[in-house]
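Note to self: the last two entries modelled the partners one at a time, which told us nothing about the interface. This time every component goes in together.
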Amino acid sequence: MSHPKSAITKQRILDAAARAFSLNGYAGTTINDIAMTAGMQGGSIYYYFESKDDILQEVLDVGITRVFSAARLAIGSLPASSAFSEKLEAAVTAHLTMLLQQGDYTSANIRVFEQAPPAVKRQNRKLRTAYGEYWGQLLSEGQRSGEIRKNVDLTILRLMLLGSMNWAVTWYRSDRMPIPELALKFCEVVLKGVGLSDDQLENSSRGRRARS
Amino acid sequence: MSHPKSAITKQRILDAAARAFSLNGYAGTTINDIAMTAGMQGGSIYYYFESKDDILQEVLDVGITRVFSAARLAIGSLPASSAFSEKLEAAVTAHLTMLLQQGDYTSANIRVFEQAPPAVKRQNRKLRTAYGEYWGQLLSEGQRSGEIRKNVDLTILRLMLLGSMNWAVTWYRSDRMPIPELALKFCEVVLKGVGLSDDQLENSSRGRRARS
DNA sequence: CCTACCGATCGGTAGG
DNA sequence: CCTACCGATCGGTAGG
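The predicted structure of the combined assembly is written out below.
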């Protein structure tokens, strides 16, 4: 049987935990909170998990795994000859979707990782590193193909991009803008910048420079 | 007297609380943790503060006030005729400095605001809104002066910029790059983008497009 | 999975 | 500011 009853119940507990961690933080979530939402008594949780840390570990690991898979799937569905900008847009859309609408597991990562016990962080960090390297490769490709300028610091770029996406979990409201549209705007800012091109700048700022 | 002893002690408690909240989250920080660091017994905290929420409120409010003042001071120190790009760099440097090296109060904001009790959030949000509007005005100026393209969505730009800065609290290590250098890179990415300009793109991608 | 409970710790208070 | 303590709650366990 691919879905024994106990596995389903375990899922229910993890779902409840992911949501609670994401809303109230780690220490702010009690075993009883999780148990109530999952429809059982507090003590019963320990039939499925060894400890509260154990639950947190699984929530965090599942969260990274899901966003990683979503990004890989999105890029993998594109024709191999796609431009970097298309791959970027696909990855940004996937990341934002997991974070903002699919994702108690992913948003729990954003919100409680820093407060997790050291052992939990250490394990989860392996997955995070792999995901970060995946983004690093994507950007490297873009630079090799010439679509990212040669003198751009890819580490900073990656951290800025992931940072601005992750922070969206604190302000995004689904009624104001659909995620694909948001993803497109993110990509435009990063790729084209918001300033004028150098020659446009040359003209418009001459007066101001002369004055100072 | 401008610094009565009790005010100094109160400061010591707030300093200890800001650091503890930033490291361990709100629920993860106990009154005793704070008291020990501040050099007193747990119960004594209540001679200075009404409740744990009260301490949190002050830490969060001070954090926003400080980063706001730092940004205003940095921009205010520039000649009035300064270009938008210079003002932006000054503000980014100020924000990052408060967040990454001066700032348990500011980083506590990043890390525990979401888990604060509703009443605390409500009050702190007023300061946050004012600070956000200050950034909005700065960007508006830049767009009016022509240094930001007319078709850029300033709300998204502001949220991306602040988001990528705030997220730096999770990865920045002072031994790898000084803050002014980091600030400059942030500004470059945002203003110039990382891609080629349109006409450069026109040439380099022609072959790729024909293939697909 | 539940019942019943433990040892520890928490935020907060009384009285000085 | 300290001492001494409260009521409540916490993560976790034993036994079924």
